[in-house]
Design a protein that fits this description.
Number of domains: 2
CATH architecture of the largest domain: 3-Layer(aba) Sandwich
Oligomer: single chain
Number of helices: 12
Structural class: alpha/beta
Length: about 375
């Protein structure tokens, strides 16, 4: 009897065994190897220290770029935070866990020590690729232009000698007074009628050099002078344009516009990224992913989003600010030939400050000052 029951059980189980064999034969191959391969690459957190002195809009742009990068790199996370200048300067000091990347303005770091040599980057605007000595690469830039009161001026004059203009003082992140030299470097040709009797001779051309009013000097009250109508124009960056835009939205301030001028633009308003070269067990993975992140920031797709920060691309790309008051004029300026200081600390700003003072006093023309400015920057 027991033997008969055993036989019946075997007969009942046999179809199930055959069915399972058929099912397993149709299943995909064992996937553990694929899982291991997928997660064999590095995963974790890349840390970025960002200089805290730049406009807060930079961090918003950076965080959006981080989000899109993390979608492309499952398992990789990027953590960015503002850090003061001294902490960034000491990022490689003993006892400190250094970040994987730093984002700094020109002049904050003394040199390229403990920074990886960068390669394989997209083409940058002329002059920008060399400024970081191969260790820092710009990821965004600011620009300089003229804001003028449209009720006082129809446009930018050939020279400012007969116009009330003012200039804010410089700061750690920009050089508004120095920027006046290239802003005024666009000499204008005007037709001069021949004197005396009209003999049918053609008018001759004369070059009008742009000069500032006698006694001109930067002032801490320049912005308020422009707002109140005491000054017809001031040089501006994206920061001043942001403030003017906010006033206009409240129905306050002058009727203003921004125009580019000059034959070149000072490009010292930069944020530059460096990849930290520091001995760690997984340093090669960290550096490779950091380089990927830098290329991501320089991609056309991400550079096109710089309008969210009121900044300008460092690569040639389509216009970001068509019909956006103020920023459209600065964007034109950002595409002029660039005068780019080196990314590491040097005495160029002191030398340039003296050149600007000579221009303010009428000792040199803007064109002469521009030549001296280029020479001062290239020699330091």
């Amino acid at each position: 009897m027991r033997r008969a029951v055993s036989i019946l059980c075997m007969l009942a189980v046999l179809p199930l065994a055959l069915a399972f064999a058929r099912i397993f034969g149709e299943l995909p191959p064992e996937t553990s190897a694929l899982v291991r391969e997928k997660y064999a690459t590095w995963s974790g957190v890349l840390r970025v220290w960002v200089y805290e002195g730049w406009d807060a809009g930079a961090m918003g742009w950076l965080n959006r770029a981080i989000a899109s990068f993390e979608k492309q790199k499952p398992g990789v996370y990027v953590q960015a935070k503002y850090v003061d200048a001294e902490a960034i300067r000491m990022f490689a000091e003993s006892g400190i866990n250094p970040p994987d990347m730093v984002i700094v303005p020109p002049g904050l770091l003394a040199g390229a020590d403990n920074l990886l040599e960068l390669d394989g980057l997209p083409k940058l605007k002329d002059g920008l690729a060399e400024c970081g000595d191969g260790a820092l690469a710009p990821v965004m830039m600011g620009a300089y232009g003229w804001a003028y009161n449209r009720r006082m001026l129809d446009g930018l004059p050939a020279s400012w000698e007969a116009t009330k203009v003012a200039s804010p003082e410089g700061s750690d992140w920009s050089s508004l007074p120095i920027a006046l030299v290239p802003l005024c470097s666009g000499a204008t040709e005007v037709e001069i009628e021949p004197p005396g009797l009209d003999l049918g001779l053609p008018a001759s051309a004369d070059v009008v050099e742009c000069r500032l009013p006698a006694g001109f000097a930067p002032s801490k009250d320049a912005y308020s002078d422009f707002i109140s109508g005491r000054a017809a124009a001031i040089p501006v960056t994206q920061r001043e344009v942001k403030r003017l835009t906010a006033l206009a939205e409240l129905g306050r301030g002058p009727d203003w516009a921004v125009s580019a001028s000059g034959s070149a633009m000072l490009a010292d308003q930069l944020l530059l990224l460096g990849v930290v070269d520091w001995p760690r067990e997984d340093i090669l993975d960290r550096q490779a992913l950091s380089m990927d992140f830098l290329r991501h920031l320089l991609s056309d797709e991400v550079q096109q989003t710089l309008s969210s920060a009121g900044a300008f691309p460092v690569v040639a790309t389509a216009s970001l600010y068509q019909n956006r008051a103020g920023y459209d004029g600065l964007e034109i300026a950002s595409n002029l030939p660039l005068i780019v200081p080196g990314a590491f600390s040097s005495p160029w700003r002191d030398l340039a400050g003296q050149i600007a003072q000579d221009f303010f006093a009428g000792g040199v023309s803007a064109r002469e000052g521009l030549d001296r400015l280029r020479e001062a920057i290239s020699s330091t």
